[in-house]
Amino acid sequence: MSAAVALEFEKPVKNLEAKIAELSRLVGEETDGAMSVELEKLREQAAKRLTQVYSNLDPWQKCQVARHPDRPQFLALADMLLSDYQPLAGDRNFGDDQAILGGLARFRGRAVVVMGHEKGHDMNSRVKHNFGMGRPEGYRKAIRLMELADQFGLPVLSFVDTPGAYPGKGAEERGQAEAIARSIQSGLRLRVPSIAVITGEGGSGGAVALAASNRVLMFEHAVYSVISPEGCASILWRDGKFAKEAAGALNLTAQDLLRLKIIDGIVDEPVGGAHRQPVEAAMALGDALENQLALLSSMDGSALKRAREQRFLAIGREGLV
User: Fold this and answer.
1) Of 75-79, 131-135, 180-184, 317-321, which range is least confident?
2) Structural domain for 48, as ranges
3) What is the pLDDT of residues 291-321, one digit of tens each?
């Protein structure tokens, strides 16, 4: 499946794919002849070029892939990976946040609590889901879900994809910072297995609030950082045009973060990114989650809590420059 939106560095491949589509229409049902031979050569050339491009992405290009509008988000992943999904709404205090969703489900036959960010795919859905930027009631919803998981002994699966928590006036008035801090605290205190996956963009405390887990995985072309490259550039250079340079300095790629022991594993994406083959990407993610759950299930509640605390306390003690 070819993504509808072409990133700048993908354009040579998209041009080849356009030629392939045009030639395919001309060839029709023909299975031999010069045009069919030429078509096969073009397909091989496009596949080779796509592999070359995605084998050499720089950090800024990975940011663009992580933000691709066709990249599978929480609702799409839930549809492909979960059964019997029952969403839960509201924080019992203010309202229901649409950027952070979650509820009860079954993952490969096992009852779990799930939560994650939803950005939306078109203007209407992006506005509805606030571009994946959670408000305080969203983080309080996450806390409520984690408490539910602890009460009933259910593993927690979190799918993180957000540019960061919403910085608006209303969110600050309703206690954004405290809500994020308490969500992190709730994650660290869980006595059940917890796994977080950075599926696209993991930005700042808005991401960590759902990722204080026993295991943190990342999709191959996802990014995870304390601030967006644009935000970093505006602070250091006072100009967002230096976002590419900031991305290179932030160590935000999955490969950088695995080396620095910030994350625990990388989930490979199909050639060309998860936005091209979302089902294949979801199945690879499902296998990784199943393997990690099997490892964590042998630990009791005290051991899980202690291991999680030690995991986060160890960050920065070694490997960081």
Assistant:
1) 317-321
2) 8-56
3) 999 999 999 999 999 999 999 998 877 644 4
In this structure, the answer to whether residues 149 and 47 fall within a common structural domain is no
CA nearest neighbour of 311 among 242, 262, 249, 255: 262
Q: Provide the token pair at 17.
A: 């794919």
Output phi, psi for 309, to 5 deg. Answer: -60, -45
Burial-class residue 283 by CB neighbours within 10 Å (0-12, 13-18, 19+).
middle
Is there a single domain that holds both residue 293 and residue 273? yes
| Per-residue pLDDT, 34 | 65
- Give a yes or no: residue 141 inside a domain: yes
Query: What is the rounded CA–CA span in Å between residue 163 and residue 127?
Result: 14
The residue-averaged pLDDT of 185-209 equals: 95
Domain total of the chain:
2
Q: Which tops the pLDDT comparison, 81 or 91? A: 81
User: How, if at all, do strands 82-87 and 100-107 pair?
Assistant: antiparallel
- Predicted model pTM: 0.89
Helix%, strand%, coil% for the chain, nearest 5: 50, 15, 35
Determine whether 94 is exposed, middle or buried from the number of CB atoms within 10 Å of its CB (0-12, 13-18, 19+).
Answer: middle
CATH of the domain at 113: 3.90.226.10
| Domain-embedded: residue 136 | yes
Helix (H) or strand (E) holding 210: none
Q: Which tens digits make up the pLDDT trace of 32-62?
A: 566 677 777 778 877 888 888 888 899 999 9
Alpha helices in 67-133 (DSSP H): 74-81, 123-128
pLDDT of residue 3: 46
Q: What is the DSSP string of 126-140?
A: HHHTGGG---HHHHH
Question: Regarding beta strands 100-107 and 110-117, do their DSSP bridges make them parallel or antiparallel, or are they unpaired?
Answer: antiparallel
